[in-house]
Amino acid sequence: MKLPSLQHLAAEAVRVVRRFPLTLLCAFVLCGVGIYVIHLDYKEQQKLEWLFPVLSAAGLGLSSTLAVALATERWGWRPARRWGAQVGVVALLVLWYALAPAQPNLEWGMRLALLLLGMHLAVAAGPYLPELRRSADTPGFWRYNETLFLRILLAGVYSGVLFVGCALALVAIDNLFDVKLDEHIYGYLFVTLATVFNTWFFLAGIPHNFAELEQTAPYPKGLKLFTQFVLLPLVVLYLVILYAYLGRIVVLWTLPKGWVSILILAFSVAGIFALLLIHPIRHAAENTWIRTFARWFYRALFPLLGLLAVAIGTRIRDYGITEERYFVLVLAAWLFCMAVYFLVRRGQGIIWIPASLAMVALLSAAGPWSAFAVAQRSQLSQLREISAEYGLLKDGKLDGAGQRVPKLSLQVRQRITSIFEFFADREATTQLQPFFAASLSLPDSLQKQDEWKQQQWYQERPFAVSGVPRTSQYTTANNEQQTARFYNSAEHHDLGQGRYWLGRVESYRYALQKDSVLTEVATQKGAFRLRTHARGRQLLLEQRQADHRWQTQLTLSPGTLADSLARVYGSGNEGIDRPLHLQAAKDQIQLQLFIQDLTRNEKQDTIFYEYSGRVLLEVGEN
Fold first, then answer.
1. Which of 11, 296, 354, 494 could make an SS bond with 125 (beta carbons 3.0 to 4.6 A apart)?
2. Does residue 490 carry a pLDDT above 80?
3. According to the 3-state scheme, what is the secondary structure of 296-361?
């Protein structure tokens, strides 16, 4: 086999740039942002309000720009129309960036997953959408998707092997030649290969001659063996288990368990995937079993879909619709439609599978019919029914319901807890405001607090106002107990007379950057902060000046203390228990560090220090 020349590789790379410029641009954006955030710790990443919008928009851009580029290319659109379509995609990505929150909640995470699924399916079906009107399948659609699937696998293998090989080479250079490499270089390597290289390599293998795909080609023998002897036996195994469970349900006349929904969906997906894999050879004389299997597979789906409908319907009747139940219900309806369609069409029209599923995913992501809007309306309706049934409302409000009706049953308290937590997890607690007279909006005092504190307030607010005790879904009548919980979330304590207890501070090598801010506090003399310096050797107390710059006021040296102790007790000891205290004072400012743990680490010519302790800051009167 002749290996490609460097000139050929360069020409292919240029061809990919010309063919898919916006898709590659999205990959470079992902790479650049990924490399940038490697340097940041968790708190610094949380402060980047643009991080999630940019990453999610670029991720969506990878598949959406590719889908539009391939579709317009096969449809034969002129360059002006192609670029017009791409501009439309970019406008939608800008809209997503503008609407996306700085920190995604559960709802936005699921919405992003739905859009990514829809866009990937659009890549699979988009170029062949005109084939939906044909009475028979075109060979090109199957071969096109076979190429995409194999190229994805090949790109993953190449990227993985390159990363392992290059990482081992860097380790060898580090250890054999004593070359001090940046500790972030492995992250740079991984991000670059996973974004730019993987995408570029995948795009280079996408077919550009769609007419050639319509020609007859030999079917991969390995794929047939995999489907016939691995995938189909698993489908049959699932079928036997599910029908045995269905028989048990009928004999005992009991309601099915909710978990059976997952197994039915897995069985359905595996069966449809298997039929797609062997679709091109179904008409061969020696493969009549494929047509028989396909016909009976779709027929076998109907009783199982009935079982699925009963299982999910029972949960919806008792607890209302959530996004997960919405997806199960929608997928069950989609499977029913596909089964009827392929029985009528005798297995023709496989393009309807990705095309219709893409439409379902995109419609489920936004709008009044979306999973999120339907789930919220259902949960509000559930709360309204429960409140009316058990007399929890006074003047139409739930305020103080727990005191008015103190003997609520365990099941009712669990249902109310589930509804309150549903909205809190999605940062949509304000949707409950019509049920409350007291405000459920975040108070001004918490507006600038950490996100976890705000989320905790949202979690607790409906329970505090309603007086309904929070009850775990795992609580039973036998182990139920009433618990009163109190806490103080303040990190710093003003002890009075200019004394501030800063609580616990920690400086660890793998948790912080080289110079990281440990804590910050506002005092009567302005804002102060503690910052670790020189790989933990020094702890700096800095004060914010009028020009907003930070000026060092005091310095403590845990590293110097660790060095002196190591000289006395040795650097290889397993730990020595003794009092450890450092203090410094200057101009009516005094800082004391009560060390609980101090570690000195020395590797070759690099020394770094790790410590944890508690800090007392004293600021004198002016």
1. 354
2. no
3. HHHHHHHHHHHHHHHHHHHHHHHHCCCHHHHHHHHHHHHHHHHHHHHHHHCCCCCCHHHHHHHHHH
Helix, strand, coil tally for the chain in percent (to 5): 60, 15, 25
Mean pLDDT for 543-558 is 88
Contact 24, 201 (CB under 8 A): no
The CA-based diameter of the chain, rounded to the nearest angstrom, is 98
What's phi and psi for 447, nearest 5 deg?
Answer: -60, -35
**pLDDT computed for residue 479 by the predictor:** 61
- Residue 339 CA to residue 604 CA, distance in Å, equals 67
How does DSSP assign 374-407, residue by residue? HHHHHHHHHHHHHHHHTT--BTTB-TTHHHHSTT
Please tell me the distance from the alpha carbon of residue 548 to that of residue 542, in angstroms, as a whole number: 11
In whole angstroms, what is the distance from residue 307 CA to residue 39 CA?
51
CB atoms within 10 A of CB 185: 14
The mean pLDDT of the chain is 86
More confident residue, 27 or 294: 27
Which has the minimum average pLDDT: 48-62, 210-224, 251-265? Answer: 251-265
Q: Is 542 buried (19+), middle (13-18) or exposed (0-12) by CB count in 10 A?
A: buried
For 367-423, write each residue's pLDDT tens digit.
899 999 999 999 999 999 999 988 898 888 898 888 888 888 888 898 999 999 999
SS (H, E, C) 522-585: EECCEEEEEEEECCCCEEEEEEECCCCCEEEEEEECHHHHHHHHHHHHCCCCCCCCCCCEEEEE
Report how far residue 478's alpha carbon sits from residue 201's, in angstroms, rounded to the nearest whole number: 60
Side-chain-side CA neighbours of 287 within 13 Å: the count stands at 16
Q: What is the pLDDT of residues 453-462, one digit of tens each?
A: 788 888 888 9
Secondary structure of 20-42 in the HEC alphabet?
A: CHHHHHHHHHHHHHHHHHHCCCH
Continuous segment of H or E residues that includes residue 140: helix 139-176
Indicate the residue type of 172.
A
* Listed residue (475, 368, 366, 376) closest to 424, CA to CA: 376
**What pTM, to 2 d.p., does this model score?**
0.76
Spatial separation of the C-alpha atoms in residues 182 and 162, rounded to whole Å? 19
Taking residue 324's Cβ as centre, other Cβ atoms within 10 Å add up to 15
Amino acid 43: pLDDT: 75
DSSP letters along 144-177, please?
Answer: HHHHHHHHHHHHHHHHHHHHHHHHHHHHHHHHHS
Judged against a pLDDT cut of 80, whether residue 449 lies above it is answered with no
Over range 307-311, report the average pLDDT.
87
135 three-state secondary structure: coil
